[in-house]
Design brief:
By secondary structure, the protein is of the alpha/beta class. It is 35% helix and 26% strand. It contains nine helices and ten strands. The two termini are 31 Å apart.
Length: 237
């Protein structure tokens, strides 16, 4: 069953077409990977699903409810996102950030559960601005998880991480998914995305180039030509 349905979504900014009629179905309970070259429209798409911007045309349906919706309503419905740049209260401690976020959760999640899930136990009393980069990324995800998402939108969560940190992130993604959270993952690190995703879609110039299994994606000549092949010599891809 599809938790999220995206139907013929278009996004136009002046004369620029960021999305040109995208249709996708995100099944409930899966990790759904979304890749594509820079400018393909990936972040624009999740901005629309999360309520940051409205589509020019088309339809977004989440669990039977039709969008678009403002971001606060999206959160109440269970759609929560992270950002490429972690959004946290940098002057507050990790503990304080989690308490503030948990206050606004639909039902209170105990802080200890988030701390254990995201490996934040050793930094609870450190201010967010003093955290190592990878730990700050985990805090951003913990803040999103505190809102009890049904659909978690991860926007480039592996950017800037070391290979070991990426492996740890992969373990966490699988763990959250196993706990019942559907995940839409936007990521440039193709190896990471292929490893954790159950299903993959590829965007190119605002349109769907491919949709299918990670194995089929890596064999698809159009994807290799447009994206994978172009970057095959880069360690993060």
């Amino acid at each position: 069953m599809s938790l999220l349905q995206i139907r013929n979504i278009e996004a136009r900014f002046g004369g620029v077409v960021a999305l040109g009629g995208v249709t996708l179905d995100v099944p409930q309970g899966l990790v759904y990977g979304l890749i594509g070259p820079n400018g393909a429209g990936k972040t624009t798409l999740i901005n629309m699903v999360s309520g940051l911007i409205a589509p020019t045309s088309g339809d977004i349906v989440f669990d039977g409810a039709h969008g678009p919706w403002p971001i606060a309503q999206a959160v109440r419905r269970g759609i929560v996102r992270t950002f490429q740049q972690t959004r946290a209260f940098l002057g507050l401690t990790v503990r304080e950030n989690l308490r503030i976020s948990s206050v606004h959760a639909p039902d209170t999640m105990h802080i200890d559960e988030l701390v254990e899930a995201c490996g934040l136990g050793d930094v609870l009393d450190r201010t967010a601005r003093d955290l190592p980069y990878a730990t700050l990324r985990h805090l951003g995800i913990a803040l999103a998880l505190s809102l009890r998402p049904r659909l978690l939108l991860l926007d480039e969560p592996a950017v800037g991480l070391t290979p070991g940190e990426v492996d740890r992130l992969g373990e966490l993604v699988r763990r959250w998914n196993a706990a019942g959270i559907t995940i839409l993952l936007v990521e440039h690190n193709v190896r990471f995305l292929m490893d954790v995703s159950d299903h993959v879609a590829v965007l190119d110039r605002g349109r769907v180039l491919f949709e299918g299994s990670p194995e089929a994606c890596q064999r698809e000549s159009r994807v290799i030509d447009v994206y994978l092949g172009r970057r095959s010599g880069h360690a993060e891809d």
